[in-house]
Amino acid sequence: MSGEPWLILPTYNEAENIEALVHASAEVLRRAAPAGFRILIVDDGSPDGTGAIADRLCAEHEWLEVLHRQAKNGIGPAYLAGFSHALQAGAGYALEMDSDFSHDPADLERLLGAVARGADLALGSRYVPGGGVSDWGLVRRKISEWGSVYARCVLGLKVRDLTGGFKCFRREVLEAIHFDSVRSRGYAFQVELTYRAVRAGFEVVEVPIVFRDRQRGQSKMSWRIALEAMWLVPRLRFR
Question: What residue ranges in 12-160 does DSSP mark as E strands?
Fold first, then answer.
């Protein structure tokens, strides 16, 4: 692999999860990227002390960095800040993952393996054979499935899981799609990045994963985020 992989972890009130998640992710990345890796926590001013935990961990591990932001203004801007920081530091790959164990850190190795075999963007996909969702009720499951189908139909894409947030980008993808001009914040942010990558001609592969509902802390999902996606997805197509 050319260039270190950077794992970006956006946090807001993840004090119950962040330490265990950092250690679990680092264990996998040591195996998947023996030449070196970095983990970047992007904390949006969490009032529960997440930032202080992140700072303590950063003092203990040379491969960990923390980026403190003053306000909670959406997962999209948090990732954009993380991507910019990682690319400026020379990252060869940028991974994104939820910070609540909804995504299994063990799957980081599979995403990195997919790009090592030639993919430009590897998506952890719930909606391809072998993928799935655990611990969700029927209503939430159907909303998620419908959201991906809606975005796929409107944008004319073959990618089955457009709203997921478990991804590995080659550096060249982020540079080519001008990610710093993305304005979406929630589900639509994930859709927009993948749409831009496909439009730019990059190879996108879906790696099956099982998504699990968080066991600790409070979900950040809201109807406002879902409605934003419904409104913004058609605008992506006709810009």
Answer: 38-43, 64-68, 93-96, 121-125, 132-134
Give the global pTM: 0.89
Asked if pLDDT for residue 157 goes beyond 80, the answer is: yes
| Separation between Cα atoms, residue 198 and residue 120, nearest integer Å | 10
Question: What count of residues does the chain have?
Answer: 239
Where residue 168 sits, what CATH number does that domain have? 3.90.550.10
pLDDT value, residue 231:
55
Place of tokens 């997440």: 50
Dihedral class, residue 7 (left if φ above 0, else alpha if ψ from -120 to 50, else beta): beta
Q: What is the pLDDT of residues 2-30, one digit of tens each?
A: 689 999 999 999 999 999 999 999 999 99
Residue-wise pLDDT for 184-204, tens only, equals 776 788 999 999 999 999 999
Helix (H, G, I), strand (E, B) or coil at 65: strand
Residue 192 near residue 162 (C-beta atoms within 8 A): no
pLDDT given at position 146: 77
231: Cβ–Cβ under 8 A, 6 or more apart, which residues? Answer: 188
Q: Which residues span the domain enclosing 69?
A: 5-237
Number of domains in the chain: 1
Render 168-202 in DSSP notation, one character per residue. Answer: EEEHHHHHHTTGGG----SHHHHHHHHHHHHHTT-
Name every residue whose Cβ is closer than 8 Å to that of residue 198 and which is 6 or more positions away in sequence.
157, 159, 204
Q: 169: which 2 tokens? A: 């980008």
